[in-house]
Amino acid sequence: MSTAIVELLGASKRFGGTQALNGVDLTLRKGEVHALVGENGAGKSTLGKIVAGLYAPDSGELRVDGVPVSRWDPIRAQRAGIVMIAQELSLVSQLTVEQNVFLGAESSRLGVLKRGTTDRFRALLELAEFDLDPKAPVGTLSIAQQQKVEIMRALARKARVIVMDEPTSSLTAHETAQLHTLIRGLREQNRSIVYVSHFLDAVLEVADTVTIMRDGVRVRTAPAAQETKSSMVEGMLGRELSVTFPPRRPSVNESVPPLLTLEGVTTAAAHDISLQIRPGEIVGLLGLVGSGRSEIARAIAGADPITGGRMIYRGTEVSRWNTRKAIASGVVMVPEDRHAQGLVLERSVKENISLAFLDRFSTLGVISSRRERAGAQELADALSMRPPRIGLDVGGLSGGNQQKALLGKWLVGEPDVVILDEPTRGVDIGAKATIYRLIADLAERGVGVLLISSEHEEVLALSTRAHTVSGGTIVGEIDPATLGVSDLLAHLFSVDLTIGATA
Ligand SMILES: Nc1ncnc2c1ncn2[C@@H]1O[C@H](COP(=O)(O)OP(=O)(O)OP(=O)(O)O)[C@@H](O)[C@H]1O
Ligand SMILES: [Mg+2]
Questions:
Q1: pLDDT (0 to 100) of residue 26
Q2: Whose CA is nearest to atom 8 of ligand 1?
Q3: Does 423 sit in the ligand 1 pocket, CB within 6 Å?
Q4: Main-chain phi, psi angles of 217, to 5 degrees
Q5: How much is the pLDDT for 277?
Q6: pLDDT in tens, 395-447
Q7: How far is CA 452 from CA 82, 263, 291, 303, in A?
Q8: In 209-348, where does DSSP find H-type helix?
Q9: How far, in Å, is the centroid of ligand 2 from the Cα of 253?
Q10: Ligand 1 atom 25: the closest Cα is on which residue?
Q11: If DSSP codes are grouped into helix, strand and coil, which group holds residue 359?
Q12: Crossing angle for the helix pair 399-411 and 369-382, nearest 10 degrees?
């Protein structure tokens, strides 16, 4: 066994009424990829944050290089070579990629880069095999690209321990493979990685050791070679579970009038979009990251102004469409970025859920708090939120539970058209199954659903129809019932190549 770098003995951590960790032991060895798995709220991020000095444990002992540590914070951790890539990204959106990468590192002061950083940046880029523009403002990047910037930031700090909290939640299969190659390279250099993930296949592929968490307690630590997907799920949930998709919805007859029709709709970021959504239909959008799926969603949701073409909702052409109008008429979007576009972190789950739909809970502008509470609680229960207390601030929820609150926020208003952009991002395997059922139930009730997910499998399994997207426009329609994931990928890449060749 190689040497232990970080050891936690009986670590506990409490937030208000929540015991996030309860007597957890963890040993992180040199040159080890150590995965943490567990349900939403199991304590993985809390454990990672303790390792990286963002939280100090309430009790228990922490040893770094065998030496007990009494004072522990991010600066001390960084000095000891330990950094974290947080689940909720922490980049400064006004600064460029390069500035963010070196922010707080020795080669920058207040965002002013020292000489030679451009070369260092290039070297890092090569090491990571990422494709990023150093001068691009981070605010203009997709979540997936921001995740890459965070990874580069950790590399720039020459960390010997990197805690990666769900690093692949917005990456495509190809990008995940790239990241795994990078992780193996870091392991070769005897660095250690804590790898938190809900993607159990990825865990088995890259980890040496797996620690399974449940309700703040460590269930077991074992070599990854001894675990299987089902043994991990069993450990996480305390029961067996195989995620199955609900039966595919029957296709909706073409004679049924569509809820929503787009004819050549164009915005700043999407062009010439034509599609229809009928009641009870789940329409999938399939494309690679950056293909323009979210931009199409934003046009429909009124988030980006429509500059050309026509959008017809319930038989009437809409004009000067914006999010307020969209929401008021029952067209809602669950956005990809739950912080920037979704949740108010300082407000309770209940308030977040009812914020968008005050009308539903109010008579003549007076909110009925009883109805508000009942509606919110019903959804929290349906989504098995943990803890199920809707009075808690959203900011204190674990990542996956925030995602559930975000879904709840938009479903409570009983919308007519729902756009779901990455609805299962960061959600555990049990909750995923619930969300799939919820999506199918929406359609069953006659809601029109537009579904975007980088987990192509989800789109293929749930959609009644699906369009392929590339270069900001719809390039084709596929039959989700007959196309497999590997065929789809081949198709998407060839579409992209063709577009690239003709552009
Ligand atoms: N800052 C905080 N304030 C209040 N409660 C918190 C805070 N951070 C975590 N918790 C609570 O501690 C518990 C563990 O949360 P943690 O974020 O570690 O879970 P997780 O395993 O990372 O879950 P996920 O898979 O959803 O990211 C949860 O019940 C969460 O609500
Ligand atoms: Mg977490």
A1: 98
A2: 396
A3: no
A4: -120, 145
A5: 97
A6: 888 888 888 888 887 777 778 999 999 898 888 888 888 889 889 989 999 99
A7: 35, 20, 11, 16
A8: 229-237, 293-300, 323-328
A9: 42
A10: 40
A11: helix
A12: 130
Pocket test for ligand 1, best of 8, 12, 15 (most atoms within 8 A of CB): 15
Q: Is the CB of 38 under 6 A from ligand 1?
A: yes
126's CB contacts (< 8 A; 6+ apart) are: none
The residues facing 473 across adjacent strands are: 470
Residue type, 344: V
Residue 401 Cβ contacting ligand 1 at under 6 Å: yes
Q: Is 48 in the pocket of ligand 1 (CB under 6 A)?
A: no
Six token digits for residue 27: 């040993």
CA dihedral sign, ordered 205, 206, 211, 213: negative
Is 472 near ligand 1, meaning CB less than 6 Å away? Answer: no
C-alpha span between 252 and 163 (Å, rounded): 47
Strand bridging mode 192-196 / 33-37: parallel
Can you list the domains of the chain with their CATH numbers? 4-237 (3.40.50.300), 278-305+321-502 (3.40.50.300)
pTM, full prediction: 0.78
15 pocket-lining for ligand 1 (C-beta < 6 Å): yes
> Residue 195 pLDDT > 70, yes or no?
yes
Residue 16 CB: number of other CB atoms within 10 A?
Answer: 11
Query: How many whole angstroms separate alpha carbon 28 and alpha carbon 67?
Result: 14
